[in-house]
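Re: [ENG-882] Designed sequences occasionally contain unexpected residues at chain ends

Forwarding the minimal case from QA. C-alpha cells:
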C-alpha cells in the first residue's frame, strides 16, 4: 500500500493567451482545494467523501465551469451535470440537466446512496433534489456576467465553445503568437472549464468525481461525458479517473474506463495506462485526465495546450500546474 494520493483538475484545453492574473487565480483555487482534500485525508476521511468535498468547493467557486460559473446553453440557461464513483464496490451516481441544484456532485452522491438508480436527469433529477432537501438556487446564482459575454461571442461565431474557444470557422484559427479576435474583440478571455477530483485513501480505496456546466452555447438537452460512468468518470479496485475536454471525443473513447481496462487486462501500471489511452484512444488536442491507483500513484495526462491541475501524495509531494 502506497499511502494516499489526490489529484484535482479544473479543465483541459486552456487558452494559450490566458491572462496571467487568471492563471494565478486558477492555481490558487486548485491549491486551496488540494489543501482541503489533504486535510480531510489526514483526518482519515474516505476517498469517496474527499472527492465529494473537493468538487463541492470547486462548484461553489465561480472560477471554473461547474455549479456557479457553469457554461451556458444556447438559450443562456444552465444545465449542469455530474457523476461520482466509489471504487471498492463500483457504486456510482450521476445527474444531468440540473438547473437549480447548488452542488450537483452531492446530488449525484445521493443518487448513489439514496436512490435505487444510478443516473437521474432533468425534471426527474430536480424532483429528487427537492425530495432530498438539497440546497437550491435560482438561475441568476449560476450565471456569471463573464459567461454571458462569452456566450455572446460564441453565438456570433456560431460555434460551440469547448476549451480555448477556437471557433469552427477556419478564418479564425488561434495560435500562441496571434491572439484570436472575433468581431474586433480578443477572445483570449478566460474560458470556463470542467472540474474533477480523484483520490486514493490510505486504505487503498479509489474514488472519482466530475462536475460541469458542459460546453458554452451547447444545445438544450446536450449530455457530455462528465456524467457518464466509464467516459468522464470511473473508479474501481485498481484506479480512479476523471476526464475533461471535448465530451464527444471522451465518450467515443470511453476514456475513464479504458484506463482501468488496460490496467486490469494488460497489466499496465498507472502511468503506462494513461499514456496508452491518451495515445491510442483519444484524438489529438481533445482532452485530458487525472488518475490515481490503489497503490498510491497519481498521474495527470492530456493532449491539449494545457490542463488546470494539481496533485499531492502522502509522502509530501505536491504540484499545481497549467501547461505541459
Ligand atoms: N468534458 C466537458 C463536456 O464536454 C467539457 C470540459 O471538460 O471542459 O461537457
Amino acid at each position: 500500500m502506497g499511502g494516499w494520493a489526490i489529484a484535482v483538475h479544473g479543465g483541459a484545453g486552456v487558452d494559450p493567451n490566458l491572462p496571467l492574473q487568471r492563471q494565478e487565480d486558477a492555481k490558487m483555487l486548485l491549491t486551496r482545494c488540494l489543501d482541503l482534500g489533504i486535510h480531510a485525508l489526514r483526518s482519515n476521511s474516505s476517498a469517496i467523501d474527499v472527492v465529494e468535498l473537493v468538487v463541492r468547493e470547486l462548484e461553489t467557486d465561480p472560477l471554473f465551469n461547474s455549479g456557479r460559473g457553469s457554461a451556458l446553453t444556447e438559450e443562456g440557461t444552465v444545465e449542469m451535470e455530474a457523476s461520482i464513483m466509489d471504487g471498492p464496490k463500483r457504486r456510482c451516481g450521476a445527474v444531468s440537466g440540473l438547473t437549480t441544484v447548488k452542488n450537483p456532485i452531492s446530488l449525484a452522491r445521493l443518487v448513489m446512496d439514496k436512490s435505487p438508480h444510478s443516473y437521474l436527469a432533468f425534471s426527474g433529477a430536480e424532483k429528487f433534489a427537492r425530495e432530498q432537501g438539497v440546497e437550491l438556487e435560482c438561475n441568476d446564482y449560476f450565471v456569471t456576467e463573464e459567461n454571458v459575454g462569452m456566450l455572446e461571442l460564441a453565438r456570433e461565431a456560431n460555434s460551440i465553445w469547448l476549451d480555448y474557444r477556437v471557433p469552427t470557422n477556419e478564418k479564425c484559427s488561434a495560435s500562441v503568437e496571434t491572439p484570436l479576435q472575433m468581431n474586433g474583440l480578443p477572445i483570449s478571455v478566460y474560458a470556463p472549464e470542467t472540474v474533477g477530483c480523484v483520490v486514493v485513501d490510505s486504505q487503498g480505496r479509489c474514488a472519482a468525481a466530475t462536475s460541469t456546466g458542459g460546453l458554452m452555447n451547447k444545445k438544450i438537452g446536450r449530455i457530455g461525458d462528465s456524467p457518464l460512468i466509464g467516459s468522464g468518470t470511473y473508479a474501481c479496485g485498481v484506479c480512479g479517473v476523471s476526464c475533461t475536454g471535448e465530451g464527444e471525443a471522451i465518450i467515443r473513447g470511453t476514456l475513464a474506463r479504458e484506463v482501468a481496462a488496460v490496467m486490469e487486462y494488460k497489466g499496465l501500471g498507472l502511468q503506462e495506462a494513461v499514456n496508452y489511452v491518451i495515445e491510442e484512444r483519444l484524438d489529438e488536442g481533445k482532452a485530458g485526465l487525472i488518475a490515481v491507483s490503489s497503490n498510491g500513484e497519481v498521474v495527470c495526462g492530456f493532449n491539449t495546450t494545457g490542463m488546470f491541475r494539481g496533485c499531492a501524495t502522502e509522502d509530501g509531494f505536491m504540484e499545481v500546474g497549467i501547461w505541459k
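QA comment: On inspection the terminal residues look reasonable. The pocket of aspartic acid is lined by residues 11, 65, 193-194, 212, 214-215, 224-226, 244-247, 250 (CB under 6 Å). Proposing we downgrade this to a documentation issue.
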